[in-house]
Every structure is written in structure tokens, then in C-alpha cells.
Design a protein that fits this description.
It is a single chain. The protein is of the alpha+beta class and 353 residues long. It folds into two domains: 5-91 and 298-341; 125-297, von Willebrand factor, type A domain (Rossmann fold, 3-Layer(aba) Sandwich). 22% of the residues lie in helices and 32% in strands. It contains seven helices and 20 strands. Strands 1, 2, 3, 7, 8, 16, 18 and 20 form an eight-stranded antiparallel sheet that branches. The protein has a six-stranded mixed sheet with strand order 12-11-10-13-14-15, with helices on both faces. Helix 1 (141-153) packs antiparallel against helix 2 (180-188), helix 1 packs parallel to helix 7 (282-297) and helix 4 (233-243) runs parallel beside helix 6 (259-271). The longest helix is centred in the last third of the chain and has 16 residues, at 282-297. The protein is globular, with a radius of gyration of 20 Å. The termini are close together.
Length: 353
């Protein structure tokens, strides 16, 4: 039986939208479906750094200028580094309101502060860890588990973490939870599998994350190229863009030596506002996870209700800092989203039916 699923979710950049889907089936194992995206609230996660790469704190809503298809947008809510979001303007009369919105924020005259303290401020996000347990990972398995364990333990203030693993199929070992011990048990219980269907399993993880509000990210630990997926990486990338899901990829040298995988990993992470890391050893892996933690914890989260726009396709978003004194800083965020998205998924597995 075909079910019609309606959910409200957010996009990174981020968009809150109404999700109208066709069949919802497991694994790569998806039958043809169409996804229509009607924007209610656009949410942008923005990293601001100085020339040394230090994160800049203390910016105010009026320090950001947001345009969508060259149309100036008014920031509706503003949040720094996981702090409680401040509501700045009411939604249009024909848009949904935000539950639990706080009163308007009062601006500060203080200068922005480059943050080189290294102290995590990470709060208020949902993080999915996707661990490669394919035969590519066999020799690195224990070291990879140690690196992931350290990452989980370093995020004591994060709201929720889920731990998934993949080889040919996706295993949802631990659903989103604030219980760190449960996550660690899931990490330690993983065993090596066979071929790697990264894009199939990443697509399903994005779909899980798509149903959530607020900041959300997927951290992929991969040791090699995809060898078994039926889903192209472009489908994963576009769905992540349209559902507001940041993708970070930590990969080993084996994948970096495969130029196609290297290009895909770098493009996919950049397109969703994340980063790709290529680690030569387990120490590099630990440093990559620490960098991801810091990046997530220093994001500014801005949202706005799009003004009338006849464009039904790709909408370009630009974010810049206002004032000459702030032009020395670098801004990194998603550069757009697709209002109307159609994705087709083919199935090679009868077990999904």
C-alpha cells in the first residue's frame, strides 16, 4: 500500500519545508518517488572565520546581509553556537509560526571576538554518525572505533547522537539519543562486513535526518570508494541540500588515492556546508573529528521567511557581512536550494518489497 507522508523539516543552508513523498522503503531499495518541497522557513548555518581560521564570535543579526535570488531577506531568528534562538520578526500571515519563539533580541555594541580557545560550545543539534564497516575498513577497524569513541565522548553537551553503520546495507545500531553509553555500546558492537554501498546508505540517513527541525549533521567515516550503490551521489547531495542536512566526511588515504571518490566527497561536503577530511593515520582521524566538533559548535544559525519569488527551480542564496570592519572575515554557508525537487530511486533488491 502506498502511503502519503507529510512532514515539516528544515534545510541547510537549511530549509523548513513540507515534505510530500511517495513510497518510503528501506535501503537502496527505494522505488520511484517524487519529492515536492514547499518552503515555509529557510534556515542557514553560517561559519565565520578570520584569516588564521579561528572562528569569530559575538556577531549580531544586523551584521549579516542575506539575499535570495538578489532579493533582500529579513532575518527572522538568530542563534550563535547553539545558544537559545532569538525571534527577531514575526512570520508572514500566510506562513506557519515557530513554536516556542522567544522575544526579540537586543543588539550589542561589542566587537566580534575571534575564538581560538578550543573550548566546545556544542549544543542543540542532532548528529548522525555513519561508520564504514565494509571490507575496506578491515585493517583500520579498531583504530576507527577508537576515533569515533573519542568524538562521541567529546560531545557531552550535544543534544542527541545516532550511530549507524554500513557495508552493503544500512544498520541503524543506535537511534538518536542523549545517552552516550548507549552510543558507545553501538560503536563497539560493530563488525566488518562486505562491499560498500555508501551512497545508498547515506541517502537513507539523510531521509532520517530530514524529518528533524533545527541543526542536523551526518558525519561519515569512510575507508574507501563506493562499490555497491545503485543511487548516484548527486541524488544524495541534492536531497541533503533540500533537507538542511550538513555532511562531513572523514576518509582515509585509500579513498583519497581514488580520484573519483575524492572529487565526490569534496563536492558533496562543500555543497551541504560541511567539510571533507583525508586522514593518513589514526591521529589525523582524531584531529578531523575534533575539527568537525568545533565547526558545528561555532555555527551561526539564521532563518528567514522568503519573500515572494517566481523562481520555481534553484534559488541562489548569498550571505555577506555588513560594514567595512567585517570584510576581513570569511563566510562559509550553503549557497542555495531547490524549491521543487524530483528524485528517482531504482531498486535491485526484492527484499524491500
Amino acid at each position: 500500500m502506498r502511503d502519503k507522508v507529510i512532514a515539516t523539516v528544515g534545510i541547510f543552508a537549511g530549509i523548513f519545508f513540507l515534505f510530500y513523498g511517495g513510497d518510503r522503503q528501506p535501503a537502496a531499495q527505494e522505488s520511484s518517488s517524487r519529492i515536492f518541497v514547499n518552503v515555509v522557513l529557510v534556515q542557514l548555518n553560517v561559519a565565520v572565520t578570520d584569516k588564521k581560521g579561528n572562528y569569530v564570535r559575538g556577531l549580531r543579526p544586523q551584521d549579516f546581509v542575506v539575499n535570495e535570488d538578489n532579493i533582500p531577506e529579513s532575518i527572522s531568528s538568530f542563534e550563535e553556537g547553539g545558544a537559545v534562538a532569538s525571534n527577531l520578526s514575526p512570520p508572514p500571515s500566510d506562513s506557519a509560526t515557530i513554536a516556542g519563539a522567544t522575544p526579540s533580541v537586543t543588539s550589542s555594541a561589542t566587537e566580534p571576538i575571534p575564538d581560538d580557545s578550543g573550548i566546545p560550545h556544542f549544543e542543540g543539534a542532532s548528529v548522525y554518525i555513519l561508520f564504514d564497516t565494509s571490507d575496506y575498513m578491515y585493517r583500520q577497524f579498531v583504530y576507527a572505533q577508537d576515533a569515533i569513541t573519542g568524538f562521541v565522548r567529546s560531545m557531552q553537551s550535544a543534544d542527541k547522537i545516532a550511530f549507524y553503520s554500513y557495508s552493503r546495507d544500512l544498520s541503524r545500531a543506535t537511534s538518536l539519543t542523549a545517552d552516550r553509553s548507549m552510543i558507545l555500546r553501538g560503536v563497539r558492537s560493530t563488525v566488518a562486513g562486505d562491499e560498500a554501498a555508501l551512497y545508498n546508505c547515506l541517502l537513507l540517513t539523510v531521509r532520517d535526518a530530514a524529518q528533524l527541525h533545527g541543526r542536523k549533521a551526518i558525519v561519515v567515516f569512510s575507508n574507501g570508494p563506493d562499490s555497491a550503490s545503485s543511487v548516484p551521489p548527486e541524488d544524495v547531495e541534492e536531497l541533503a541540500q533540500s533537507t538542511g542536512t550538513i555532511i562531513y566526511i572523514v576518509s582515509t588515504r585509500l579513498a583519497q588515492e581514488e580520484p573519483v571518490s575524492t572529487a565526490v566527497f569534496e563536492r558533496m561536503s562543500k555543497a551541504t556546508g560541511g567539510k571533507a577530511y583525508f586522514a593518513k593515520n589514526w591521529e589525523d582521524e582524531k584531529q578531523a573529528f575534533a575539527s568537525i566538533r568545533d565547526d558545528l559548535s561555532h555555527l551561526y544559525t539564521l532563518s528567514y521567511y522568503p519573500k515572494p519569488n517566481p523562481n520555481r527551480g534553484w534559488r541562489r542564496i548569498t550571505v555577506r557581512l555588513a560594514g567595512k570592519d567585517l570584510q576581513k572575515y570569511h563566510v562559509r554557508t550553503r549557497d542555495g536550494y531547490r524549491l521543487l525537487q524530483q528524485s528517482a530511486f531504482s531498486s535491485e533488491s526484492a527484499s524491500a518489497r
